[in-house]
Amino acid sequence: MRASDDGASSTTPAVAESGTIGRELWTADVAYAGIGSALGGAGVAVQRRPDGDRTIVALDTLDRLRRRFPDAPTVEHRAVLAPPAVNAHTHLDLSDMPFTPGPYGAFIAEVIAFSHAGRRGEAATRRGLAELRAARTTTVGDIVTTEEGMRILLDAPDIDGVAYWEVLAPDPERSEEVLAATERAIDRFSSWQRQGGVRVGLSPHAPHTVSPRLMVGLTALARRRGLPMQIHVAESEGEQTLHRRGDGPLATALAALGASWVPSGRSPIGYLEDLGVLEVRPTLVHMVHVDEDDVRAVARAGSAVVHCPRSNEALGCGTFPWALFARHGVSVGLGTDSRGSSPDLDVRREWLAALRLHGDGANAAQLVWSAVKGGARALGTRPRAARRGEPLDALSSWTLPVH
């Protein structure tokens, strides 16, 4: 079978007739089998059968492939040949929310209004899943806020990854009540899990939207149950001000919700480290406003990070410090965030945005690795791999332009 054409444009030379047997080369700016490193200037040697089916023979640099298969014609070129990308962070139940670029604070207000209007739930989750499938994404880390949404994800026969039950409760007086309700919900959701399907996880929304007492309790719950955790951290510049000094726009917003906040004098990451949260190796999303001490702490803990470049750009959150994480060996995946802060749920377009954003600091092959294996690591899933003898369709064809 032909590698599926998933992108917006392609260059497609004439393919040799399908009624013959032979080898052919599919070339790519980046090729990746899902194991090892992604390779620039590479390709896939393919066995073509009389019935038109194609199977993978080898994935390597073009120089090595041409030495091994000197008579194989080049028949296709793609920007990327790789297993399907992983969407390591999204909010499918916000799939009906209009794309709302603008200041971060205004966006959060829009999300709250959208949620209060009861527009997060089953229909939005189903539409989001349909969009993921259209992009050939079958592994997802989704933040879930309704039981209907959780049931849909856990029942999906063709999807794996993690459905993270979101907890948002800044009022310390409600800590015991919310923790007990969360544990009951986790019990219920866990009984719905299927072998090989989506797993139940836990998402304390952010360090400043969950009280310290509740954050400690949720961390203990995750440890006892072996639940994967995902937390929004250091997305906006105001989080540093809130944590270090206790003032700024986020302090005002929390006060409006009736929640008090006592600053720790530490960064958001330092605060989570002091509470023992990093001990369960949560996946940390956004991580824009961090310094070297923060990244060292993340590396020590072994936590993975999810980068959402288009959302950060749309909301004016700043630029993810890719080189800093790379220097400390932190595994980075890619996510789209919600349809409210990103124009679509296609992680291949997130890859392209990251490539443009980081320039020489992160090459195309590194970012393909992040979109595939980095995303799988962020979710604790086994990355998909395309091995010798498998159909060519084991590789997703990203035909989005690199330049």
What's the topology here?
Blueprint: E1 22-31, E2 39-48, E3 54-61, H1 62-68, E4 74-82, E5 87-90, H2 104-116, H3 122-134, E6 139-144, H4 147-155, E7 160-167, H5 175-190, E8 198-204, H6 212-225, E9 230-233, H7 238-245, H8 249-256, H9 268-275, E10 283-286, H10 292-301, E11 305-307, H11 309-314, H12 322-327, E12 332-334, H13 347-358, H14 364-379, E13 396-398
Parallel strand pairs: 1-4, 5-6, 6-7, 7-8, 9-10, 10-11, 11-12
Antiparallel strand pairs: 1-2, 2-3, 4-13
Helix pairs in contact: 3-4, 5-6, 13-14
A few lines on this structure:
The chain is an alpha/beta fold.
Name the descriptors:
Urease, subunit C, domain 1, TIM Barrel, alpha/beta, 403 residues, 2 domains, 5-stranded mixed beta sheet, 14 helices, 4-stranded parallel beta sheet
Overview of the molecule:
This protein is an alpha/beta fold. The relative contact order is 0.18. The protein is built from 14 helices and 13 strands. Helices cover about 35% and strands about 20% of the residues. Strands 3-2-1-4-13 form a 5-stranded mixed beta sheet. The chain has a 4-stranded parallel beta sheet with strand order 5-6-7-8. The chain has helices at about 60-70, 105-115, 120-135, 145-155, 175-190, 210-225, 240-245, 250-255, 270-275, 290-300, 310-315, 320-325, 345-360, 365-380; strands at about 20-30, 40-50, 55-60, 75-80, 85-90, 140-145, 160-165, 200-205, 230-235, 285, 305, 330-335, 395-400.
